Amino acid sequence: MKQLNFPPALLTDLQEVDRVVLERASSRSSVVISAAGKYILSSGGKRLRAALALLAAQFGVYRLSDVLHAATSVELIHAASLVHDDLIDEAERRRGAVTVHTRWDHGVALMVGDYLFALAAGEMALAPDPRIITYFSQAVMTICEGELAPVMNVIPFATARNQYYYKIGCKTAALFAAACKAGMASGQGTQEQIDALGSFGYDLGLAFQIIDDILDFIGDEKLLGKPAGSDLRNGTITLPLIYAVAADDDATLAASIDSRDEDHLAWAIAEVQRLGIEPAYATARQHIDLALSHLDIFPDSPARQHLGEIAAFVLEREQ
Amino acid sequence: MKQLNFPPALLTDLQEVDRVVLERASSRSSVVISAAGKYILSSGGKRLRAALALLAAQFGVYRLSDVLHAATSVELIHAASLVHDDLIDEAERRRGAVTVHTRWDHGVALMVGDYLFALAAGEMALAPDPRIITYFSQAVMTICEGELAPVMNVIPFATARNQYYYKIGCKTAALFAAACKAGMASGQGTQEQIDALGSFGYDLGLAFQIIDDILDFIGDEKLLGKPAGSDLRNGTITLPLIYAVAADDDATLAASIDSRDEDHLAWAIAEVQRLGIEPAYATARQHIDLALSHLDIFPDSPARQHLGEIAAFVLEREQ
Question: Which of A237, B94, B132, B236 is deepest in the core (most CB within 10 A)?
């Protein structure tokens, strides 16, 4: 399987982010908030968003003590939004592990999310550049807007695709972009540099989510912790399905996606695998290329190479 | 009925806070977030917390453009926490109006709360003193901790009273204190001045919540928008009940509070009215006196007088 191989110095700094994230999540007075906060924050995430912030800072003046706050904030925000997203979706599991509201209850999940958001706000206040709070608060607002904007129909193609792009732009790409911008601002970048890294993060985030949605159809059930086609079963319309419907000449797939019949679902999943995966991959690849092109304003550097490795990883990952 | 009579200049500034709060809540792209955000933000709140921030700033260098951000933030945070509190309690109504999750749905309520918290974070970043973010983010964390710490039992008295104080300190007093501290920090107060106003706000907040809990037993149903004794019906243990149980020699009240029998409930509510209201009022009065004593470090001024009027209003209000 494709692995991310970061240099030892970056890994050491990511471990420090990890330590600080978990330390921050210890509530002074609530045992359940400490437990549930640590549970979600140590649930096998790759700290990809923190790595983006650290690497973005390396395009400028890199001091871990400066960028640490942006990197910590983005991981706290990410964890909070996962807990609230699972609560809205009533999801029982994430990556194979039971969700916070399943392990505890709805009230705990709601409050732990709020607590982590507030922790993130306090953390951002320590960052060296006040714009960082603006980047992250706007990203959270965007995540909320996207959460309430589902993809409504698989056809017509252009509408479905536009709704899908809006959705994943809000849900995933906005926070990737904010992580990169906050990192570069922590590294004292110019506005042009901050914007370039924001664009890189945004396209990388789009590709990341498209791959996530592809893996939902073709991934290994053991690696993903959920059966193939979960999105289709839950009525969630994603890019592979939109492409498959568009490629399906006799329109039987579009007519059948609300079916709850197991045989029918198995057939629909196979149709998406046959017709929708390849064009979705091609689209993800385009966004990766676009993401990398935003870095052209920077000379070659180890940080730029590592962002390239992350981009390749996003495209080739299996979970 | 007791009314707050603020001077015209303060009312004008509060109207500006009101305008900014509602303007901020307009989502660029989500109709439902705009609608639900404005709904909760214009649901008859007194902007008491904003008034505290403005008046606190008047002990120092008062510029509306400086303190506006603290005043706006505290109202956004208050609204967000009401929406999430109602969601946890599954409350159908607040002050007679249907709650956000009842009028829309759970997902909308969850996201509108998150959105308002994020708006508040962005707003705080505009404030002139970076400590303001810390005050508010810690207040939000405290609210979350309190939300998950119910008063478990009515006896023994000391335990019940301590749990109740912890609960209302988290739920109400912490944000009152943060509003005062953020106001004074916006007015360039010294640490001693900020701490004094924080202590004023904390004791005022305790009294405010005790009066709220008294009104739940004796208030006018039409003014409150809910029948008398709602807390008892919902199993929520508050100070009037704790005092009534302690004063009830033969312990029948303590044994009966989990009853769902209507006659029994009516009897229990009458017992609380007979035995619990007066000592709870006396306690609220003590906190008001204590709150005012924290202002002794300041010379007499219009701002100090207005805080005195707010304190009197908190004690004498009927809704």
Answer: B132
